[in-house]
Amino acid sequence: MKWFCCGSNCLPILIWNGIGRASSIALYCMSNSVVFNPASAPDFLPICQLRELQLHRLQRMVQKAYERVPFFRAKMEAKNLTPQDIQSLSDIAKLPFSTKSDLRDTYPFGLFAEPMNKVVRLHASSGTTGKPIVVGYTKEDLNVWGNAVMRGMLSIGMSSEDVVQVSYGYGLFTGGLGAHAGAESLGATVVPASGGNTHRQVMLIKDFGVTAICCTPSYFIHLIDKAQSMGIDMRELPLRYGVFGAEPWTQEMRKYIETQTNLKAYDIYGLSEIVGPGVGMDCIHQAGPHIYEDYFYPEIIDPETGEVLPDGEQGELVLTTLCKEAMPMIRYRTRDLTSLNPEPCACGRTMRRIKRISSRSDDMFIIRGVNVFPTQIETALLAIEGTLPHYQIILRREHNLDTLEVQVEINSKMASDTVSEISALEKRITKNIHQIIGINAVVKLVQPNSLQRSEGKIQRVTDLRNLLSSKN
Ligand code: DLL
Questions:
Q1: Residue 237 counted as domain residue
Q2: Closest residue CA from atom 28 of ligand 1
Q3: Residue 289 CA: which ligand 1 atom is closest?
Q4: Nearest CA to ligand 1 atom 21
Q5: Whose CA is nearest to atom 9 of ligand 1?
Q6: How far apart are CA 184 and CA 147, in angstroms?
Q7: What is the pTM (predicted TM-score) of this model?
């Protein structure tokens, strides 16, 4: 254990020497008089100590990846690098990037740095083709993950007094179990509702006196509508905290949610490849997610050139795990576009914040919290005879629920088929799409040559969802 002074914002606090665990001592952050738990102490590390800790962890992690993951070793050797070349944090820029396709190419376990008997959990997320990408966790990784989410929850004022409904999906998706771990580490009462069955969700919120909810922002809007149709005014319920993420949302959506309810809406960011939810989260000031930099090292790069950009500039977020055991990730290109804000936050946290994520540098879109690549739809379509590789994806929001329409051209032979044959074909495509992405699409077959052709990079997705304005 060490004592660190957290600068002018906080009283001296007790810092853990590894992965923070909640203890009973409560201390005060002077800047806003919020009681915080020593488990969130790393959030307040003085910058120089944070950078020291990051460098130490980075060196350890690169060494491990080099020794244990042939894929990383080969990539480093190709750049003539050894772990000894990492002498300062800025040396990270020498390291090669990792991408989603690296996970696909090493499917399923090729990036694991621990034997399977140390891997206690697997999760998976959409890849760019039919195969998912797989991520693994040791027991310690699960501790780190729960700890990161718990720190986010502490930072918005949640405590063991809260009743937390987790309405992110449980399963291979990281949302449900990630939020669950955070709330449980906090000592809160968890209601593991998972997604779906909206009527029951509203009933549970009301009957169990739920004070905090974790779900996608679009699903929460659906819950508000459902509650209204059940004659329940969300403003009269004890709900106070919304932990919303897994998809882009806007300041306008936040305002809408906050006027329809009594809760404050907080942004939680994360991705499976790094850990799941909890890479960063808004604090009580709702001024952009703080990245838990002692676990995840952030950089912003120019997505075209790969050059590292200074803090404040907009670019692609690149993340390096600093504590992950089962699957260390070096310089992972998230494709999420944002900027890093190093300005001191009123909460006193020294961890940099990211600007709300509103777009990506690839063509992945997110519908009802599920990541989808147009190529997955393409795979589903083209497995069926008679369809052409000309298709358009249209996203809409109807009654606050996202819908997916796929328009597909059929060949001229099919075009002369009977109505019932066409309808059977639509059903087969719908089923194929559902098998691959788990979402029901409305498939519309259209005449040959009726969809617009592109001369450059084709734009497959038309997003007509109005996230209550797309402004940030
Ligand atoms: O969506 C993890 C998560 C679950 C985060 C629950 C927050 C809450 P993936 O399925 O791998 O993991 O999707 C990761 O979702 O690269 C972003 O494009 C997008 N995303 C996640 N959180 C946010 C957010 C989970 N707060 C991808 N705002 C990421 C905008 C987000 N986009």
A1: yes
A2: 248
A3: 26
A4: 246
A5: 271
A6: 10
A7: 0.84
